[in-house]
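Model: You mentioned two targets. I'll fold them one after the other.
Researcher: Yes, keep them separate.
Model: Target one:
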Amino acid sequence: MSSLLLNLAVASLVASFTAAASNGDFNILSFNVAGLPSILNDNDVPGDKATNAGTIGTLFTKYDYDVIHVQEDFAYHADIYATDDHAYRTATSGTAGVGSGLNTLSNFDWVDFTRVKWATCSDASGDDCLTPKGFTFMRVLLSEGVYVDFYNLHADAGTEADDETARAANLQQVADYIDTWSIGNSVVLYGDTNSRYTRALDGITVFETQNSLTDAWVELENGGVNPTVLTLCDNPSLINTCETVDKVFYRGSKQLSLTGTYFNYESSKFLQSNGSILSDHNPITVNFTWTTSDSLLQSELYGGPHGTWFNDIESIPSSPKTSVITFRGASRLDSVALTLTSGTTFTHGGTGGTSTSLTLESSEYWTSAQLCQGQYNSETRNFYILATTSTGRTLVSGTATSDCTTFTAPTGWQIVGYMGQDGDEIDQLAFIYAPY
């Protein structure tokens, strides 16, 4: 009996690990923390701003949201971080006039963090050009091989004509960035858009029309319909049916489905001990569930975040099989390519180095790849690749280093595509898997 119970316990443990690798959930919080120096703007929030910032950090720790994006995190950044305990946090880019005020606190690690300044700003209604506002980008690692591209933004404020022109340009800038840097990827975008659906010139629908993103509030609280009548929220808001300028957008991908399951203004959780507000914005939370595809998976990324993003996932046909593997390399890995039995070919990188190829047999599959990385011109690149097939045959290119890792497709799966960043060489690389 004890042996049977032990076997059942082990089976249950294995099943739980399998489930954890293929599905899960996480929640996010978006909060403009009103961190401008009090001498510049008191935000109509009572109390001492440093004390309020410390309270905000304490509540971040208490409620333990998985990925928190903050805006206007300027003069009191250290006070928030002093009382927060999230494992992963961005370093401040500086106070007002120097930094963007955008930061992230997370239970998950990330790669490829980038800060981008707005190309257009307006001082028609305030001092938006005083500080380099913009947006941030990062690929958050939810589980092994499970990434979601996260964006945090703070758009131009005000309702004058120049403000709306600048704000529309801001949102368009993010939408264009998504089209370039999040090809084929799941996306969660949130922050202070300073926009409302009832102001058509803002262009807030660009994320829906251009990037196929869903507004979580519209979906979960407004019947899936963009509002045509202006509604304003109290602060703190006790209802979810009003619209704020703080918004959350998301989409899934062929490799990862995302579903928004819960939306709430967290206002009643973020109050001072006397019941006063901590910020002039209502914080927003959204819960998501995720599930990996049963036909396409990916490995983790390896190398450096340089060059141009590429992702083959949208072009992979159903029931793919790799027929030819081709690499180019010499001192470093210059190019990777493969051809599927359907005739589709994927090629990434440059034309340098020596080309080498391996043609697979009809019952042979590409099942693992070793990559080695190193430094070149102060940037991390992939220097070496070793492909191994299901029959033990290999293909090598580039020069091995002491910093290597091996990616192996799950049992019954094969490598059928690539994603990563390239230029004249392969800077960053991951592999796309499909069953065989």
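Model: Target two:
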Amino acid sequence: MKYETVIGLEIHAQVLTHSKIFCGCSTQVGQQANSHTCPVCLGMPGALPVLNRKVVDYTIKTGLAISAAINKFSQFARKNYFYPDLPKGYQISQYEEPIVGEGHIIIDLPDGETKRIGIERIHMEEDAGKSIHGSSIGKPGSSYIDLNRAGTPLMEIVSHPDMRGPEEARAYLEKLKTILRYLEVSDCNMEEGSLRCDVNISLRPAGQEKLGTKAEIKNMNSFRNVGRAIEYEMKRQAQILDEGGTIVQETRLYDPEKNVTVSMRSKEEAHDYRYFPEPDLIPVNLTDDWIDSLKGTLPELPDAKKERFVEQYGIPAYDAGVLCSDKYVANYYEEAVKAHPSNAKAVSNWVMGDVLRVLKERKQDIGEFDIPAAHIGKMVSMIDKKTISGKIAKTVFEYMCEAPKDPEVIVKEKGLVQVVDEGAIREIVQQVIDSNPGPVEQFRGGQEKVLGFLVGQTMKASKGKANPEMVNQLLREMLG
């Protein structure tokens, strides 16, 4: 490998509060433009900000969840720049004194290994408004400003440049999103802009310690685009270096349709923003009691839950990882296992397979899924008791998707009880043997795979109700 890729991510996560960071205006999205505004978030002269305590609490909880240092003293600063959707002409953020210092998270790599990704800081800040270009609403040549988002609370989570490729960046993003959703401090909805990502990427000769010149790719809004943008930028920078050129430090934008990054502006340094302490807000002074009270509210986090699932339920680490990647999927699984604790692995197979498949098809979250978790557990119990076969269970599941009835009720209503009477199955097997002399002779001549065809014919003749194990056993016995 000629070059080593060095990646750091800056994540902007919208904090899940009902009101904005410095005023009482609603943070609800999708409302009429400029309807959730007031003199404070509009930047009117004389309007003074008041800090939303819940933003402070949620940021501290996030810091605790990533084993970070919580700074008892932190201070807001003015970040000065001019843009149409920034009504004050500056953004209230934190600079020299952030509320959260050094922390880390552990990511899982495709080869089964793990890696520690350092987090430099988390600070609180307000979001800007939104510029709407007329071409997107049928009015080319015009631009509009919606300030409903101005003042929405954000956490900016800044990683160290510890990632070495798109796979690691994606794993970091997924892990961080999972933690934020477990904490319920952000909904992390990338489509609505409540989780946005800036990618800092540079290349350096393999083995070199000194970092290369970085480019920043702004406002990525999907995990897939983050990966594609990194791959493109790696190739772009490598080509420049191979041709003897130098990388320019700049801010770039990613065009997903063309799959390219394009130059936006030269990269600003901190001094370009003329940071200075925010005079209208007092510093945030935390006490040990304040921090300790929030420690007690932390939920079981994904890594701890994954480890518990492996130990408590005896399922593979892979299964536990899939289930625990979403807090509510993990909760659903545990409710399903309560209904049939003796086969936790089979329950995990159904949740990871059919349940998640249907959710993906419907584009739903598990909270919108209308089959009670206990019904999944009960259905697996019916398979284990041989009341129904695995194949019949697939049919029962589809019926539950149409109307979430108890699986026992569905089996009775639809006449789906598995046939386990040996005499009845023997009669069906004999009919199949008599009707298929060719395959029978092939099997008796040593062609073992023909048995699968005969099993299928028997299951078809029994309308899927015959016990598959008994069908296999009787076919072998009756064919000699």
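Researcher: Noted. Anything on target two?
Model: The chain has three domains: 3-294, 302-414, 422-478.
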